[in-house]
């Protein structure tokens, strides 16, 4: 809580104030004034308003200052005069700068680091200067543009974080954290990368930007670069009022309030982004930044528009004129650190708004207007000083300058009296046992105040005044005063304590020093002093605490100095320190570097030398606070927390609301705290949220705590302040807590929100209110023993010591106090103590109910909730029942309390099983309130409207009839129709029967009225069975047989219809009805057809069958020789049919040569042998379905192997090889299955079956089968043959297969090389097979053949180089015995013939042909010799070698093509091979 104290700063009261400027860093204010006698005067004052030692600058005798501009980093002031002179004031010297200005200098702007300065005058001269930071300015450029400049700004420096710090409004850590928790990814990144210490110690120095823009009165915008060049970049819409920069965007504001945004390019040119024309009723509009993207613009006489330049959103803040109807805003300024927008008006009023910003510093609409301050004359200028946290506001009128210093509001409490500073010189003194407050006025602004039971001490302006408080007459009488300058004051008895630099003086009321208390150099300078009880407390800058005992004549040290930094790690410095009433306990919390409030309150047990703390952020004390590392240092005495060898964790069950209280405390920091004036273990803390979930200021909460040496700090209770951050803790005196409330804020928020907390009394004054703690209700008028007993009870209750708590309250006789104690038992769940309290209260009903409840088996929550109800604590009962999920009881509680909306909502969301009952009870409630429409609506929701609504409206027949008519409930319409029928109103009854669609009743009434035609029409159109049956009976009674049969049939009363048809002999009708009727009626009709005078056996058989009597149907069909009908019957036979009946039917089909039907019956009856014999005998094809049925002969459905073999054999004989294979496989006879599959010739299935069988014999069978196929042209078959022989290890068969492959290579493709490879595999396979004489001979023969083939292959390979030797080898091969088994003679002769033809020795070639013919009679030459070669020989010798029909199978295509003028060797590979790979 703070207030603004005004101070007049007027060095020369006769002078006119012409200008002022704050230094951006050092808290210095330069004031420019002019008077006739002195001329132009420049005065420099500090932030306190006092002129500095070197603050008076020599006046200018004939001129007045026209502009003042401070260097951004140094104490250097540039002064421009209206004569065009330019001066620099630095180091107490005022030096003139040689400038070329010829007119008044009215603009002077420094660059961001102060290395460059630009000055302009009204004649259009603009000069750039280079500064060395001292008194020297060097001119960089000078331009005479003959145009008055009205706007000037430097471009922002490179490297600034525009998103965080533009406009001087940075983002707070709290805002970033709040946004990060809410899921904002950008905020999370910024928050994660934020490093407060490192960023302060090593900031990144931005690159200074020396480019600038200047705007003229003619609307021309000039770009000035760092080299001094100037160019015109834009013509604005009128005279330029101001130039602003937002990142890389130039903002131009004209006199006509056209605001344009332009993108700054690298070359200095600008590109238009947007242009907006704002409406304004004023010519002198004011403008200032309020965030990095928002401007505040005075758009009217008493209003301000806040406009977001990026999002284009805007809102208006305004004020009501005080007295002057023509009042308007004359000046604006914004304080970023305080988020206060200030405006001065023409009527001399200072208007301030507290702006609220969101996560990223954007001002939102929920601003709050602060109290208006009246200055006197019209305010010409206002400026916030940026030093001291932005707490100094300078205001300038025509002849005066004012300082408004923000200081903390002085307030104190003692002995039932509170004092609060309500103005700079006024104090409101509240006597809380009386109605009217007193008022004390000081002659000097009050800076400090201290209050004792008998005196109030005021300090301000270097003077202390002491007043005696006369409570009986509410009067304050001055008893002493003296002059002294001090930092803090305190008082006790007849002594005043003043803190002066490094010592505390004990003075009398007249200022006489009685004692001096000194702080050592190691302890540091004292920063705070206070008196508690009979002890003086002092805290130093080095976090040292000293306590003196004041009970003696002189102050003596009460304990050794306490080194807080040794007791608590990471302790920075003291924020607030307090001492309990007896001086036994010391409490302190630290000022956190990263937050304005800390979250841990530390309490020192001075005698026990231990430290305990409570963490308001986690909601836990030091015994439970494990989520956050403890702050206590290694010297912390953990033994004080350990009891009997175990950690003392207080039982949460002893105080069920502990978790609720903890959740309310969690996430908060400490603002201030105070001990009770008389109770040594009780204190109250004012807390504030560290992070606000909704982005708005939340109300402060006051937390009362008990301190215990063993259990630490324990939360007792929590209550909220009247409104957000508008209150301050003043003092504590059980049963009251005294809280200051800002009266202006209370008035503004009055009507927005009513106080919902019943424990808060009305404000006894406009300043301080007494808040009665709910656990201490009834103690406000009690004596001290009762008060002490209740406090002791609460203290022991908080630590779970119920025995001590109970003993403490035995002396109490006040019923109201006993009631309060009983309510406390609700919180502690001590029903036994509550019963005693109820007895002491003489609450007999409640005591009796609680005794019964304790003896019952209900849950403890229900018992406690019942106690809360009897004690008139509905909110607590509601909370307990809801948290324990006792929704049924809570629902009943709501109903009994008349809270029907809550009951309905609870039933709808949590107790749906009782939802309809709740609707019903609410309807009864509404009925009792005569709310008929509401009752009807909820009767309908409860599902009881059919009974309750007619009862409710029975006396109002018209309303009942109208309700039923509008209702969609057919049952309700039927009820009304029945009632009308009972009263004889048939027409009305028929109408409602028709609306209810009750066709039976309609037909019944029409029959009663003998309107059978209408009844028949209704029955036919509706098809209602009951209506048709009733009408049929009517027609039967009237002997209208056809109509009776018709309506019995529509009613599906077939037995009645058949009965009538029998009586009338309508056999055709009986047949048709029997087909539609149930089995019993079918049986009855079948018997009728069988035994009638004219039997109809075919119909009887069909009806027996449809009725399910298959045996009877079969017997009758066989007896009457009905083959077709019998065939249809057999389709419905199954294995459950009587076997004799099945056999009988099968024999019947055999006798009639219907063998397939007989087989089907044998299959159904599981007579497998007979079925199979019939299939073989009469060649009846076995289908898959029949085979499956034949195979399942056992009860479990498993196949009999013998049956499967027999079945497979029959299928094999019938040529059904696949089915045979399947059944043999099922029987486990895979070899026989393979043989059957081989018969089918299905190669793909044969290969698959062999692979899955993995049987040697099956592999061999499969391989042998595949050799019978065209394996020469199918590589896949060949691979499977080899694989099967290898898997079966039939290497002899594999060898012969390789030999067959070699023969194919020779005979078909004449490829001896691959044949040689195949023979090699053959030999290897034969060797694997084993040794036997037969195999040895065959192996030898194969090896001999391989040798001969190898010779022939070598001969072919060496032929190109040694043709003669090759011919000789061929002749030798021809001499070998049985050469034809290895190398075909024809191939040898062909090779030699082609050789002679190549060498053109055609005669030798002819001789070789003749020799070939002799060796192989009837040989086909073209089979061995290329046809072209033969034709060449014929042509050369003139002989005929080839007949016309000669085959050219090998000679032309398969061996080698002879090329006469081709290859060097005359041969060319041209054939494929069976062994391609």
Summarize the structure in words:
- This protein is of the alpha+beta class and 1477 residues long.
- It is 37% helix and 25% strand.
- The chain is built from 50 helices and 64 strands.
- Strands 26, 27, 28, 29 and 30 form a five-stranded antiparallel beta sheet that branches. Strands 46, 47, 48, 49 and 50 form a five-stranded antiparallel beta sheet that branches. Strands 51-52-53-54-55 form a five-stranded antiparallel beta sheet, with no helix packed on it.
- Helix 44 (1312-1329) runs antiparallel to helix 45 and helix 47 (1385-1398) packs antiparallel against helix 48 (1402-1415).
- The longest helix is centred in the last third of the chain and has 26 residues, at 1333-1358.
- The chain is extended and about 155 Å long.
- The two termini are 100 Å apart.
- The model is unreliable at 160-173, 193-203, 626-656, 744-765 and 1445-1472 (pLDDT under 50).
Calculate Rg over CA atoms.
Answer: 59 Å
Question: How many beta-strand runs?
Answer: 64
- Largest sheet descriptor: 5 strands, antiparallel
Identify the overall geometry: extended
Output the number of helix runs: 50
Distance between the termini: 100 Å
**How much β-strand is present in the residues?**
15-25%
Low-pLDDT windows of residues: 160-173, 193-203, 626-656, 744-765, 1445-1472
Mean pLDDT: 78
Overall SS class: alpha+beta
Helix proportion range: 25-40%
């Amino acid at each position: 809580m703070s207030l603004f104290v005004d101070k007049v700063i007027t060095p020369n009261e006769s002078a006119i104030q012409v200008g002022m400027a704050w230094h951006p860093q050092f808290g210095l204010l330069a004031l420019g004034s002019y008077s006739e006698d002195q001329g132009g005067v420049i005065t420099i004052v500090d932030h306190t308003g006092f002129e500095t030692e070197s603050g008076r600058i020599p006046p200018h005798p004939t001129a007045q200052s026209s502009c003042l501009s401070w260097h951004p980093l140094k104490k250097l002031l540039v002064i421009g005069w209206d004569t065009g002179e330019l001066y620099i004031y630095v180091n107490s010297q005022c030096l003139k700068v040689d400038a070329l200005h010829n007119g008044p200098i009215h603009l002077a702007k420094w660059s961001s680091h102060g290395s460059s300065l630009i000055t302009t005058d009204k004649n259009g001269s603009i000069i750039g200067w280079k500064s060395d930071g001292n008194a020297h300015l060097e001119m960089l450029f000078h331009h005479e543009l003959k145009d008055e400049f009205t706007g000037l700004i430097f471009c922002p420096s490179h490297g600034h974080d525009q998103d965080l710090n533009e406009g001087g409004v940075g983002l707070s850590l709290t805002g970033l954290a709040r946004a990060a928790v809410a899921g904002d990814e950008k905020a999370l990144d910024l928050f994660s990368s934020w490093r407060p210490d490192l960023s302060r110690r090593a900031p990144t120095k931005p690159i200074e930007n020396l480019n600038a823009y200047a705007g003229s009165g003619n609307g021309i915008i000039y770009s000035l670069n760092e080299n001094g060049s100037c160019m015109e970049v834009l013509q604005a819409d009128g005279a330029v009022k101001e130039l602003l920069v937002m990142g890389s965007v130039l903002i131009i504001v004209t006199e006509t309030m056209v605001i344009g945004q332009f993108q700054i390019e690298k070359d200095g040119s600008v590109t238009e982004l947007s242009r907006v024309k704002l409406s304004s009723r004023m010519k002198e509009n004011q403008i200032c930044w309020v965030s990095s993207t928002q401007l505040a613009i005075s758009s009217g006489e008493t209003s301000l528009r806040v406009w977001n330049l990026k999002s284009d959103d805007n809102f208006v803040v305004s004020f009501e004129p005080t007295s002057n109807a023509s009042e308007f805003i004359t000046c604006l300024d914004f304080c970023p650190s305080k988020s206060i927008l200030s405006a001065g008006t023409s009527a001399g009023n200072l208007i301030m708004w507290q702006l609220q910003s969101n996560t990223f510093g954007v001002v939102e609409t929920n601003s709050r207007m602060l109290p208006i301050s009246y200055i006197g004359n019209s305010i010409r200028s206002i400026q916030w000083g940026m030093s001291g946290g932005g707490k100094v506001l300078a205001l300038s009128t025509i002849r005066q300058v004012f300082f408004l210093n923000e200081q903390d509001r002085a307030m104190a409490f003692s002995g039932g009296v509170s004092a609060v500073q309500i103005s700079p010189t006024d104090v409101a003194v509240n006597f809380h046992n009386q109605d009217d407050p007193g008022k004390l006025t000081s002659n000097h602004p009050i800076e400090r105040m201290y209050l004792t039971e008998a005196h109030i001490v005021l300090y301000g302006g270097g003077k202390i005044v002491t007043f005696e408080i006369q409570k009986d007459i509410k009067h304050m009488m001055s008893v002493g005063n003296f002059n002294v300058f001090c930092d803090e004051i305190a008082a006790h008895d007849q002594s005043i304590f003043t803190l002066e630099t490094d010592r505390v003086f004990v003075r009398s009321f007249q200022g006489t020093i009685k004692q001096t208390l000194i702080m050592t150099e190691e302890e540091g300078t004292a920063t705070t002093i206070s008196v508690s009880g009979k002890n003086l407390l002092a805290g130093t800058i080095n976090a040292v605490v000293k306590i003196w005992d004041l009970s003696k004549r002189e102050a003596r040290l009460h304990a050794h100095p306490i080194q807080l930094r040794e007791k608590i790690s990471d302790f920075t410095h003291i924020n607030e320190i307090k001492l309990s009433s007896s001086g036994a306990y010391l409490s302190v919390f630290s000022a956190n570097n990263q937050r304005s409030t800390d979250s841990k309150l530390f309490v020192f047990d001075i005698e026990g030398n231990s430290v305990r703390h409570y963490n308001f952020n986690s909601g836990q004390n030091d015994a439970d606070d494990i989520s956050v590392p403890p702050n206590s240092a290694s010297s912390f005495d953990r033994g004080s927390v350990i009891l009997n060898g175990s950690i003392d964790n207080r039982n949460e069950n002893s105080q069920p609301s502990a978790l609720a209280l903890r959740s309310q405390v969690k996430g908060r920091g400490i603002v201030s705290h105070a001990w009770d004036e008389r109770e040594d273990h009780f204190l109250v803390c004012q807390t504030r949220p560290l992070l606000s979930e909704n982005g708005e200021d939340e109300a402060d909460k006051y937390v009362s705590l008990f301190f215990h040496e063993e259990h630490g700090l324990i939360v007792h209770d929590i209550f909220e302040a009247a409104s957000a951050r508008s209150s301050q803790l003043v003092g504590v005196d059980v049963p009251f807590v005294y809280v200051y409330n800002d009266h202006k804020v209370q008035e503004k928020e009055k009507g927005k929100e009513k106080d919902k907390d019943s424990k808060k009394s009305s404000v006894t004054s406009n300043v301080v209110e007494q808040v009665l703690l709910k656990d201490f209700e009834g103690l406000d008028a009690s004596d001290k023993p009762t008060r002490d007993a209740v406090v002791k009870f609460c203290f022991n209750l908080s630590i779970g010591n119920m025995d001590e708590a109970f003993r403490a309250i035995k002396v109490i006789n006040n019923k109201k106090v006993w009631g309060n104690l009983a309510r406390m038992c609700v919180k502690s769940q001590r029903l036994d103590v509550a019963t005693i309290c109820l007895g002491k209260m003489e609450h007999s009903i409640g005591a009796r109910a609680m005794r019964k409840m304790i003896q019952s088996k209900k849950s403890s929550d229900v018992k406690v909730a019942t106690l809360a109800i009897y004690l008139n604590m509905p909110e607590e009962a509601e909370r307990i029942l809801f948290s324990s999920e006792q929704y049924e009881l809570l629902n009943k509680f709501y109903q009994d309390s008349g809270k029907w909306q809550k009951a309905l909502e609870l039933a709808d969301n949590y107790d749906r099983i009782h939802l309809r009952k709740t609707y019903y009870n609410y309807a009864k409630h509404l009925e009792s309130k005569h709310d008929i429409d509401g009752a009807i609506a909820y009767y309908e929701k409860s599902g009881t409207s059919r009974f309750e609504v007619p009862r409710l409206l029975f006396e109002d027949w018209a309303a009942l009839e109208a309700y039923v008519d509008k209702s969609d409930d057919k049952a309700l319409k039927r009820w009304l129709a029945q009632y009308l029928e009972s009263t004889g109103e048939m027409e009305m009854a028929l109408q409602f029967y028709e609306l209810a669609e009750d066709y039976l009743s309609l037909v019944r009434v029409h029959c009663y009225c003998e309107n059978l035609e209408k009844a028949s029409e209704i029955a036919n159109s509706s098809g209602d069975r009951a209506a048709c049956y009733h009408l049929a009976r009517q027609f039967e009674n009237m002997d209208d047989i056809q109509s009776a049969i018709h309506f019995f049939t529509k009613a599906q009363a077939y037995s009645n219809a058949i009965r009538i048809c029998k009586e009338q002999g309508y056999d055709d009708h009986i047949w048709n009805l029997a087909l539609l009727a149930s089995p019993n009626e079918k049986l009855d009709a079948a018997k009728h057809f069988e035994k009638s005078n004219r039997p109809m056996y075919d119909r009887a058989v069909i009806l027996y069958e449809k009725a399910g009597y298959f045996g009877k149907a079969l017997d009758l069909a066989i007896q009457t020789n009905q083959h077709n009908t019998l065939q249809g019957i057999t389709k419905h036979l199954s294995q459950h049919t009587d076997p004799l009946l099945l056999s009988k039917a099968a024999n019947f089909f055999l006798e009639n040569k219907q063998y397939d039907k007989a087989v089907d019956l044998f299959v159904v009856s599981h007579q497998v042998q007979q079925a199979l014999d019939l299939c073989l005998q009469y060649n009846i094809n076995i289908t898959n379905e029949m085979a499956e049925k034949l195979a399942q002969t056992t009860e479990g459905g498993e196949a009999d192997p013998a049956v499967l073999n027999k079945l497979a054999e029959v299928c094999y004989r019938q040529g059904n090889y696949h089915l045979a294979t399947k059944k043999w496989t099922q029987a486990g006879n895979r070899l026989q299955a393979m043989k059957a599959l081989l018969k089918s010739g299905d190669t793909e299935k044969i290969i698959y079956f062999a692979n899955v069988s993995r049987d040697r014999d099956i592999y061999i069978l499969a391989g042998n089968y595949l050799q019978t196929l065209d394996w020469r042209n199918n590589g896949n078959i060949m691979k499977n043959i080899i694989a099967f022989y290898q898997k079966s290890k039939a290497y002899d068969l594999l060898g012969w297969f390789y030999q067959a492959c070699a023969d194919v290579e020779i005979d078909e493709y004449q490829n001896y090389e691959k044949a040689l490879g195949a023979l090699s595999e053959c030999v290897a396979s034969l060797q694997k097979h084993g040794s036997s004489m037969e195999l040895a001979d065959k192996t030898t023969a194969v090896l001999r053949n391989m040798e001969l083939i190898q010779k022939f292959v070598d001969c072919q390979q060496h032929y190109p180089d040694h043709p003669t030797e090759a011919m000789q080898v061929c002749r030798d091969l021809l001499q070998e015995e049985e050469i034809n088994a290895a190398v075909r003679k024809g191939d040898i002769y062909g090779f030699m013939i082609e050789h002679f033809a190549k060498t053109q020795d055609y005669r030798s070639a002819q001789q070789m042909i003749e020799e070939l013919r002799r060796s192989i009679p009837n040989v086909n030459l073209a089979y061995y010799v290329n046809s072209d070669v033969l034709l060449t020989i014929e042509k050369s010798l003139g002989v005929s070698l080839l007949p016309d029909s000669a085959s050219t199978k090998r000679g032309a295509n398969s061996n080698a093509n002879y090329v006469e003028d081709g290859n060097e060797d005359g041969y060319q590979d041209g054939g494929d091979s069976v062994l391609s790979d």
